Amino acid sequence: MDIEQFDFHLPEELIAQTPLKDRSSSRLMVVNRETRDFKHQHFTDIVKYLKEGDCLVLNDTKVLPARLYGVKEDTGAKIEVLLLHQEENDTWEVLTKPAKKVKVGTELVFGDGMLKATCKGYKDHGGRILEFSYDGIFYEVLDQLGEMPLPPYIKEQLSEKDRYQTVYAKEEGSAAAPTAGLHFTEELLQEIKEMGVTIAFITLHVGLGTFRPVSADSIEEHKMHSEFYQMNAETAETLNNIKQSGGRIISVGTTSTRTLETIARDHGKFVETSGWTDIFIYPPYEFKAIDGLITNFHLPKSTLIMLVSSLVDRETILKAYNEAVKEKYRFFSFGDAMLIL
C-alpha cells in the first residue's frame, strides 16, 4: 500500500502550540464505525457515548524531563543530551547534539556538577551510551535539571511541566506523552466512574520513534520502533471479565491500543505480562482487543493515522480529517480529540 494514500493537507496554523487552560475543554469529533458519519462535540460530551459496563483503558506512563543541557568537562563546549532508554542502573542510551563531539571517554557536566556523565559506547543509529554519576536520587536530579522533550512540531516553550503529563501519569519512562489522555481531568474521570464505566491501566513507555516519519514508499516496508509495555494481573482480569460480559473496551490513545492488541495477538486473551512491542497496525487489520478508540488528530502519512484508518476505513478517516481542517480543529499533541465507536 502506497504511503501517499494517507496524505492530507494540513495548514501549519492548525498545529496546536500550547495546551488549553482547561484540559477537557477541547473539541471532540465522534466517528460512528457503522454509519461512517461524524459529529462535532466537546470533550466533556464523551459521557454521552459511554455506558455502564464499558471499560476505558488508560496508559499510565509518565514522561521524563529527558532533555539535558550540559558542557564537555575539558573544553566547555555545549552539549545537548536526550535520554532514550535506561540500559541498567545509571547507564542510559541517549542522543547527543552535536553527536560528533561526544566520543568514548568524553566527560559531560550538567548543572554545575550536580550531574556528570561519561560516554561508554556507541549505538548503531548514532546514539551514545552514557554512565551518569550524582548524589541522591537520579529522578530527583533529573526533575531539577531536565526539560520536557516536546515533539519537534511544537515550537513554544511549555510554562507548566505538568501540562505534558496526564493527570494519572505514574510509571516513569516515556520520552513523549500519550497525548489522547491529556484531555481527561480527575473530575471527568470520576464522573465516568460513577456512570458504571470501569477505568483500567496499562503501561507503554512512548519512545521518540513515535515521531519518526515513514520513509519507505510502501507501508509494508516500514519497520516500527520497539517500545516497552506491561499489564498487571488486575487489569488482565478486569478486561477478560469485560469481554465475557459483553462490555466494550475503549482504548485511550494509540499507545494503549498497540499494547492491548499485542497482548491479545500473542496470548489470545489478556494476561499479566511485559515485553517489547513493534506491532504495526495498518489497513486491513482485524482488531482483537478494542471496540473503540479515543485519539488525537495525527500527522499526514504517519503510522498513527494508519492505525486509526484500520478501525474505520481510510476514506472515512481522511474525510473526517479534511472536515477537521475545514472546521479549524487543533491538531497533534495539544490539539483536539476524536472518538471512534
TrEMBL record:
GO molecular function: S-adenosylmethionine:tRNA ribosyltransferase-isomerase activity
GO biological process assignments: tRNA queuosine(34) biosynthetic process
EC number: 2.4.99.17
Main location, first listed in the record: cytoplasm
Top EC category: transferase
One Pfam family, short name: Queuosine_synth
Subcellular location: Cytoplasm
Pathway: tRNA modification; tRNA-queuosine biosynthesis
GO CC, alphabetical: cytoplasm
Name recorded for this polypeptide: S-adenosylmethionine:tRNA ribosyltransferase-isomerase
The organism's taxonomic lineage, starting at the top: Bacteria, Bacillati, Bacillota, Bacilli, Bacillales
